[in-house]
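Project standup — Tuesday

K.O.: blocked on the structure for the chain from last sprint. Re-posting the sequence here as requested.
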Amino acid sequence: MFYLSVPPNVFIDVVKCASKSASSLNGWTRVIVEKPFGRDSESSAALTRNLKQYLEEDQIFRIDHYLGKELVENLSVLRFSNLVFEPLWSRQYIRNVQLIFSEDFGTEGRGGYFDNYGIIRDIMQNHLLQILALFAMETPVSLDAEDIRNEKVKVLRCMKPLLLDDVVIGQYKSHSKGGISYPAYIDDKTVPNDSLTPTFAAAAIFINNARWDGVPFLMKAGKALNTKGAQIRVQFRHVPGNLYKKSFGTDLDRATNELVIRVQPDEAIYLKINNKMPGLGMRLDRSNLNLHYAARYSKEIPDAYERLLLDAIEGERRLFIRSDELDAAWALFTPLLKELEENKIVPELYPFGSRGPVGAHYLAAKYNVRWGDLSAEH
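H.V.: unblocked you, prediction finished:
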């Protein structure tokens, strides 16, 4: 087994040498390829084409470590083995879905690598889109790798290519807080002073199929924000003709149910429900039905890479990305990335350690959505 965590420009040379002079004569030879898988549709297709000169598709394991995370693995279990969720998993009951990734640090010396790719390629086109495909796919025929990957490809191909109007990009600027000065992205010595590379992006994605027609899937990813974490938030529709409307006051949004899957840190799944506060009056309160992993399970949660490496050794492809899946993912983002670069779109600046650019709120508001991670009791 060969694990390629090397710059993409030497991928092919390494694979060529490995396949010609270090392959197993009996048994198997497998190659794990770390992202980035190209920069756009063309470079990704060229990479696949070149890899396939030396390897069969079933020898290539494109690794996305987010697919090995415990709560991403649990997403299908939660949905397909619980009667309380499966019937609700559609436009009829779900108002919007949010996929949120945030880091509370900047590029810190990795700017040279990052500047060539930006946050959309680094986080959205792979990690967040993979989670979205797993979340939104139809029920697979079985748990077999090919059956699952077939459904992921189908749902990716139903997505409308992203338009500039549905995307907000940002870049962090320097900021002083509590006497400490935090640097701007372009203060990184490995980043050009005039760089327009986004360190933050938010996007609204729509899936053109019967299950999800009209439901906004909002993605958000950024560096140098106020928190660190990754989560999936499912906001359900309002209860029709809600009897308790008066008890909620004017903000009906506070009364909708929300399912939150906290992928990291401090893994948890919780459901926000409405509840009557104890007492003689009728006061309602939002409470969490909470499955907190640390409290419920004493076992240590394995690292995502541990699981994926074990899968690769066992030849289990379920959590690895197939080439047609990669093509569909790039088809969604490539037109947008070209437009951003060709038109030199300037990112909105946001202070290091803030909640990100204001534009992200306007994007959500355009689709009548509020980011769940910014509410007071998130």
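K.O.: great, moving the ticket to review. Residues 66-301+345-374 form a domain with the Dihydrodipicolinate Reductase; domain 2 fold (CATH 3.30.360.10). The first helix runs from residue 11 to 21.
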